[in-house]
Amino acid sequence: MKTICLIAAILLGISCSVQKEDVVMKLWYDQEALTWNEALPVGNGRLGAMVFGGVSQEHIQFNEETLWTGGPHDYAHEGAVEYLEPLRQLLRDGKQDKAHKLAMKEFMSTPLTQKEYQPFGDLYLDFPGHESYTEYHRELDISSSVCRTSYVVNNVHYTRELIASRPSQVIAIRLEADKPGSLSFDLWLDSEHEEHSLETSSGKQILNVAVKDGSLKGTAGIEVKTDGKISSNGDKIQISGAKTATLLLSAATNFVSFKDISGDPTARMEKDLADAYDNSYEKIREEHVADYRKLFERFSLNLGNNGRDSIPTDRRLLKFIDSPDDPSLIALYTQYGRYLMISASRPGTQPSNLQGIWNKDLKPAWGSKYTTNINTEMNYWPAELTNLSECHEPLFKLVEECAETGVRVAREHYGAQGWVLHHNTDLWRGTAPINHSNHGMWVAGSGWLSHHLWEHFLFTRDLEFLSERAYPVMKGAATFYSQYLVEDPATGWLISTPSNSPEIGGLVAGPTMDHQIIRSLFHACIEAASLLEIDTEFAGLLKEQAEKIAPNQIGQYGQLQEWLQDVDDPENKHRHVSHLWGIHPGADINWEASPDLMEAARQSLLFRGDDGTGWSLAWKINFWARLLDGDHAYELIKLQFRPVTANNTSYSGGGGSFPNLFDAHPPFQIDGNFGAPAGIVELLIQSHQSAIELLPALPSALPAGKISGVCARGGFELSFSWEDGILQEVEIYSKAGEDCNLRYGDHEVAFKTEKGKHYQLDANLNIRSL
Ligand code: FUC
User: Fold this and answer.
1) Which of 271, 282, 348, 355 is most enclosed, with most CB atoms within 10 A?
2) Given a cut of 80, is residue 6 above it in pLDDT?
3) Is 354 near ligand 1, meaning CB less than 6 Å away?
């Protein structure tokens, strides 16, 4: 029976204790990495590295997030607007082919493609005489963000530890032998860039690189501190007879902002290196671990442990597919997503691109840029939910910058005010339609990205953020759509045209996803304007228009229609399921407001089938969570853990995980590493309807667990546990003093809270102690 109690705010003085996890927070291996997808990632938000853990030769491939091809550039196509109405007319007349061709000629980005993220360089360490060894072990400890390799040669125990420190802005490597004088090695930097040079002196080497197609240059430097002897031999630094050595690696480019490349990479690199050199490794490490843990330890997840931590991670993954009874791998994977976010996206850095900050290729898949018809957004799904709100910040900055460049595109392409972003952006904040009109001419990128700033507000209730940062961006995006939408002569509805349903069906008038995104943006703007007590007239216009936007429709097969017309192919197994945006990450379609549309969405998802590339699997975990089918979501988790061999880079259609748990699109694409953890957490808690729901879609395979520090809309942080599938107890921390509505099964409670206070409830949602 439903019990709804209204209880006054009461301070209970209970602290949200975060229990120590019964999960070993390590990825570990008993073999060296032979390929990049076996190597282990470290990062400080700006510098990233992949550590192979080789014995006779160590390879550390590194990146600096601002090394891209190209230069400051405005991609708008002057005069494109003249062709807007002709394009609309061609689509009305059913002449899609002609519309594609006309758009390709007159409407697309100048140039047609955007620029690419680049690798920076490679650090090699050669250990002569270490060809045969025993007791090999390498690991990535994600509880402290430390990567280690150890082994024994001739009874000497060697260890290497590597960290990417944000406070010190260097990658630091500590090498140690347990017997004095036993550590000898050569080291050198190298780079794939055609234009690169080295300067070597005793104990220090500088690598200068220049990208081929563009105006960015980079400088990296490595410096050695050791108790052994340092000499140099050509392009190699030699260390001999040491017990310990510390290597400090820094790198920088001339990038200052998307409009300014006047930076001095050498000055920045040398300063970081000199500052780090003045500190001991112990100090650098201590500050790094403290900085990392401040974020990492806010959230914990324990789903039980059946002892598979003792199996190397690559073999553990192989085992999961046949015997998926490994709940601690699911918890580890969830935390790994948070590790990757903390390592790739910090205030002041660039946001995570298609590969986070890790990329080894001069010609990376899809340019390793920012695809905005799912990928960039998915990279940030766990940010608010798993208590990493400030890691969301780089995305907000990107959105604000695109809101600047997108003004010209809105004007030149659509004769509209406001700003628009299509299906991709890059370091230079391109916003015009790229690649091909059959998929790149999709107008909803700006709407979807604006949603992230609104969600940040919903999770934090930070009114200043809403007023200063979110609303201006949202208003600009809404202004564009408000002028861009046109009346469909057949139905009288307002529709988005010309556009795409991402990557399916070519250029069309009225794809469902666009309407869901635009309507949701309009509603958010209306709510924001009312909270901020501004823009009444504008809000009134949006309200009027929102009501006229083409509604979600149920088609002939009981499916949610992907297009204005009922033309969905029930056999279509495409990886994109864009028309389900309204159930996730949107929330307008939900069980409270529109159960019929939820059923239709389920039907669409069943037609699409479970399989897909990495991010597609991850999105489907979230869909099934919102559809409240935890067991179906678990089937998708199994597919997400499907082992993909390390050298599989072919875009084959079936995703999974590489041995280093990187998401396999394939090739590697980091979105799934973020999307799947968000989906896993959505099985345990959801807050997009009228109440925070606890254990809404618990899979039967996860009967017991505890989650701490998870966030919900309304500014709440929760901790709760369950046993035999049944909720045990709940602790809530109110960060904003909002009213709290909580639901578990048939139980529901609503109570007022005070900002900064903790509340404790029992399994029936009774406030436990008054
Ligand atoms: C979209 C997807 C592809 C890939 C690319 C980066 O175009 O359809 O699968 O994820 O982005």
Assistant:
1) 355
2) no
3) yes
